[in-house]
Design a protein that fits this description.
Helix content is about 40%, strand content about 15%. The chain is built from 12 helices and 15 strands. α4 runs parallel beside α5. The structure holds pyridoxal-5'-phosphate.
């Protein structure tokens, strides 16, 4: 399914015409439980908060360099080089105002009005809004029933496309792409040298059941066509700090950097200082966080198991579940029913055409609220019309 952009409209009108993103999540009604937000329940680690306070108390309140703090870029470049077959320089790391601004800057820098952007879905809803902002046409490519990429459909569309945007691990599905999926994407890129992959790996550190996770940074044969985007928001529970980063080959990174700094200017000095502490978080702490999300994922699966009207692909990472519910209600109507039953979730249709019939639950909330929210969810589903 292709959504053509309307060049006669301005960017705000184009976004407004096609966006499925809620302008605000709204406050939860009194007594309601929110399973709607993509926000870790644990606060930012104390060591990171302390580092920010130290930075401010040390008077680090001045502009940072326009292209981001050199030390932070260096640290990220070293981390990426050590973890992937992709020697990365500081020039190739663009520091951004959260993952959101990284994705937007990449799109503005690399996609022209009228270009075709392939978006495997269901997926994070911001990508389509960015495409509308730029004036690009969106080609939705539905996932296969098992959540894998429809590589044949992508191959069919690739010759006339500028970019593929992947979310891995997936928001809203929690699925991760297999080695075969990544190999297929690598082959597509190799066959189409003008095609770019924008891989959003905001949840790349949250992978369950010790499954192997293959990053787009591992596609070393086509690294000049890969644009990787991540954020400190989810891994380090730093959603409010607004720091992300993009990794791309030098020429692409320079363009993305230019767009990002033209819009944002330099990033917050003390946030970049504190990010150095965040990035030094011991692996054991990160694994503990992941284990805790995995336990909550299991609670979701247990609660939904055996409900005849609910089907779900097991989330393999991130902190979302995306059940499909058989009912005559639309996703939006289901969300309203759930809210009336005291549990807030997101409408599946926000995440692409094939999200209709689904809702998204976040299990990043605390266990007590999650259990209560799931009870309300299950009770509400039992009353849905067929
Ligand atoms: C897949 C994905 N990418 C990017 C973002 C944006 O992250 P940030 O808070 O760093 O802008 C989110 C936030 O929910 C997300 O789910």
């Amino acid at each position: 399914m292709t959504v053509l952009s309307s060049p006669q409209l301005g960017a705000p009108e184009r976004i407004a015409a096609s966006s499925r993103r809620p302008a605000t999540l709204g406050a939860a009604a009194p007594g309601a439980i929110s399973l709607a937000m993509g926000e870790p329940d644990a606060g930012t680690p104390t060591a990171v908060v302390d580092a920010a306070v130290r930075s401010l108390m040390d008077g680090r309140t001045w502009y940072s360099p326009m292209t981001g703090a050199p030390e932070l870029r260096e640290v990220l470049a070293r981390k990426i080089s050590a973890g992937h077959p992709r020697p990365t320089t500081a020039r190739e790391v663009v520091l951004t105002h959260g993952g959101s601004a990284g994705l937007a800057a990449a799109m503005l820098a690399l996609v022209q009005p009228g270009d075709r952007v392939l978006i495997p879905e269901p997926t994070y809803s911001l990508y389509a809004d960015h495409a509308a902002m730029v004036g690009a046409d969106v080609v939705w490519v539905a996932a296969r029933a098992d959540g894998s990429l429809d590589l044949e459909a992508l191959r069919y569309e690739a010759a006339t496309a500028r970019m593929i945007i992947m979310c891995n691990p997936g928001n809203p599905t929690g699925r991760i792409y297999s080695a075969a999926d990544l190999a297929g994407i690598g082959a597509l890129l190799a066959d189409h040298p003008d095609l770019l992959l924008l891989s959003d790996e905001a949840y790349g550190s949250i992978v369950f059941d010790e499954l192997p996770f293959i990053s787009a940074l591992d596609l070393s044969d086509v690294s000049s066509q890969v644009v990787y985007c991540s954020t400190l928001s989810k891994t380090y529970a730093m959603t409010g700090w607004r720091l992300g980063f993009v990794v791309a080959s030098g020429p692409l990174a320079d363009k993305i950097n230019l767009i990002h700094r033209t819009i944002n200017g330099p990033l917050n000095t003390f946030v970049q200082d504190a990010a150095l502490t965040a990035l030094a978080t011991p692996d054991a702490d990160l694994q503990k966080m992941t284990a805790s999300y995995q336990e909550r994922r299991n609670l979701v699966l247990e609660a939904l198991a055996g409900i005849p009207d609910v089907e779900i692909l097991t989330p393999q990472g991130a902190f979302y579940a995306f059940p499909r519910i058989s009912t005559s209600l639309s996703s939006d109507e289901m969300v309203a029913r759930f809210a009336a039953a005291g549990v807030m979730v997101r409408s599946g249709s926000e995440f692409g055409p094939s999200g209709e019939g689904h809702v998204r639950l976040s299990f990043a909330t605390d266990v007590t609220s999650l259990k209560e929210g799931l009870d309300r969810f299950v009770t509400a589903v039992a009353a849905f019309p067929q």
